[in-house]
Amino acid sequence: MRGHRAPGDFFVLIPLKGQPTIGGVRLVFSLFFLIFASQHDAGNDTLSFMCHPETSDFHKEKCFAQYTAEMSPFMRPYLFSLVTAGILFVSWTSMILYSLGHLPKIRRATDSSAREHLCHDFWKMVLLHVGSEAVAVSVTLGLFCYTQTIHFAGTYNCTLMIESVTTCIDVHHRDKSILNIFFIGGLALILLLCLGTVCQAMGNRENFIKELQDLNTPENEAGKERLEILIPNH
């Protein structure tokens, strides 16, 4: 039987032991936010695009392409979600791989000064990881706000030929506006969590180092093994 883990050992499982608490919150929120955002791409086809007076399918598609290019000249919100997900995946994967290699070094260090030095290196890497994520999210948020139409109008006047104007309606214009606002709010919250993580790590640097040392002492690991034997799963 495998032992029962205490709630505080949760981040060992993924493994994020040593991360500030707010860092774990940021990871969980980012996962749920990006999964939700990437699954919603409201009405990006001509079926939800109606024009008056009625026109041929060819001209309707031309109007829709023109409309899409004006509303999202850089890339669609759906693609912004995928790009952001890719950035965060690379960022967190790098941090997890670093943790897998570095935390055992701290655990194996027998000299207290060497262990403290390794903990300081880990602390710096946490700041680099969070800072890089904050910069990437800031750039994505800035590009999105600068290039993307946030509030979609109900009607769009399409001009394909001189003195010929076709009025078109995007049935999903409200849904698109809501999704855009949701995306901006989600990125802004991730950015705030990044800043909160930096503040927590820098403001409690000594405690961070001490707790990281205590978590990775050989005595601590042995104590966990004894606890797993004494409190088996049922």
Key structural traits:
single chain, disordered C terminus, three-stranded antiparallel β-sheet, 234 residues
What does this structure look like?
- With about 230 residues, this protein is mainly α.
- It contains 7 helices and 3 strands.
- It has a 3-stranded antiparallel sheet with strand order 1-3-2, with helices on one face.
- Strand 2 and strand 3 form a beta hairpin.
- Helix 1 runs antiparallel to helix 3.
- The longest helix is centred in the middle third of the chain and has 36 residues.
What's the topology here?
Layout: H1 21-38, E1 49-52, H2 57-71, H3 77-108, H4 112-147, E2 155-161, E3 164-170, H5 173-203, H6 205-215, H7 218-230
Antiparallel strand pairs: 1-3, 2-3
Helix pairs in contact: 1-3, 1-5, 3-4, 4-5, 4-6
Describe the structure concisely for a colleague:
The chain has 234 residues and is mostly helical. It has 7 helices and 3 strands.
Write the H/E string, N to C.
HEHHHEEHHH
Shape: rod-shaped
Derived structural class:
mainly alpha
Number of helices: 7
Helical amount = 55-70%
How far apart the termini lie comes to: 8 Å
Major sheet description: 3 strands, antiparallel
Regions with little confidence, pLDDT below 50 for 5+ residues: 1-15, 219-234
Let me know the average pLDDT.
77
Number of strands: 3
Oligomer: single chain
